[in-house]
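Researcher: I'm preparing a figure for a lab meeting and need a structural model of a single chain. I don't have an experimental structure, so a prediction will have to do for now. The sequence is pasted below. Please return the structure as C-alpha cells so I can convert it later.
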Amino acid sequence: MSLISKPPAYDPQMWNKIIEQHKEQLSVYVGLGHPIDSKGRYLHYDQLKFRLPKGVDHTLAWSAIKFARKQQSSSCIRLGEPSQECRFLYTPAMHLAISACDQNTTTAALEWMCAKIGEGKHLQYLLKDLVEDEAISSSQLEGAATTTKAAKELLKRKKGPRSIDEKMILGNFKMMKYAWDKRDDDLSLDLIKSLHRVGVEGIDDNRYFPGQFKDSDDVVVEDGEGEVVHQPPPVEHLEDRLKKICDWVNQNHTDVLGKDYMHPLVKAIILHFTIGYEHPFHDGNGRVARSLFYWFMFKKGFGAFRYIAISTLLKAAPMKYGRSYLYVETDGMDLTYFLDAQCRIIARSIAKFKATYDATVKSIDEFNAFLYSSGLYPKLSEKQKIVFNVAKSGVAEEFTITNVKENLGCAYNTAASVLNGLVDLNLFEKKRKNGNEWIYSMRENSKIMKDWVK
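Model: Understood. Here is the structure written out cell by cell.
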C-alpha cells in the first residue's frame, strides 16, 4: 500500500488570507468549502489533491473544506494514548445505508419477508446458505486460500478441518454463531476475549494466543511490502482503554431526542473501527472487529445481518478497506472516512440480500407452478418441496441427512424420510458415501422432465 499523503495543517485564518491574497479566486474557495464534493464523496486530501482547481493554494483550499466539516461534525468517542477526540458527520452514503438497514434488515422485516410468501421454512432454508458467507469471506480476507465452494462443503458436512485455511473458516463460523448467541449480553473484556478464543483456538495457538490480549508493543499493521502502516496505541493501559470502549458501547445512544443520538449501524461501524485501531490481540484482530460489528447489529434487532456478508465485498477491494483506516488516522481521527466506506459496502450488501430474497420469491412461484403442472404437488410433503426447490434453484447441489435435519430443524429420521422419499419419486439419487452418510443429489433436469412433465 503506497504512502498516504497527510493533509496540510488546518489554518484557522484561511478566510482572511484568501480575501487578502486570493480575492480574485474567492468564489473558487467558497465553492470548495463543503464537506463533500459534487458527487457526494467525502474525500481525503490524498484523493482531493489531484482534483483541486489549478492555481489554488492547497493549504487554504483544504482548510476551507475542513472548516465546513468541523461545523457539521459531532464528537463521539476518544481513542488512543494519549486519547484523541474522534468526530464524524453524516454523508449521503451513510444516510442511504441507514435507510436500507431500517427497511430491510430488522428482525421484524425478516419475519414479514417470510410471512409474505407464506413459506417461512422455505425461505429460511435458502437463507441458511448465506449464514456461512461472512465466515468464509472474512477468512479469505485474512488470507485463507480456500475456494468458497470447498469452504461451504466443509461447513455443511461438518468435516474436521485439515489445513490452516480450513481451521480459519471453521473458527470464523463459530465466532459468528457465538456473536449471535451472545447478542443479549453487554460488551465486556470477557466477551471480546471469548470471541477471539472461539474464533482462533486450534489454528496456531503459538501465533494467536487464543483469548489473550497482547503483552508487548511489537504487534503492528504492515502493508503487502512489509511497511508499517499502523502502530497501535501502547500496550500499557490497553485494558483500561478497552473498558472505556465497552462503557461507550453499553451506553444508550438511541434516544432520538437526545443530543448524543446515534443510529445503531453507525455505532456498530465505530465499534468495528475501535478494535482494528487498538489491535488488542497478537493476531485475528480484523476477524474480531468484524464479528463485533455483527454482534452489535444483532443486539439492536437487525437479525437479517445473519445473512448479509460485508466481507464478501471487502475482500474484493482490500486496499480500500485498509486505506479507510489510514485516512482516519492521518486526518485527526475523522471517523467519517471509515464510516462512509463501510456504509457504501453495507448498502451494496443489503441490496444483494434483497435481490436474493426477490429471486427466491420468484423461484418459489415458478417452482409451485411446475409442481402443479407436473402432478407432483400432492405427492410431496412440505419438507420435500423445500429440499427439492433448494436443489432445483442451485443453492445447494448435494445433501446429507444431517444437513437437511439441521436446516429444517427436524428429527434425523424425518430428514432421512424426506431424502429417501425424493429418491423413491425419481427426483433425487444417492450419489456416494461420505464416511457414514449417503450424499444425495437431484437427478438431471432433463430426466425429471421426461418422467414427470407430460
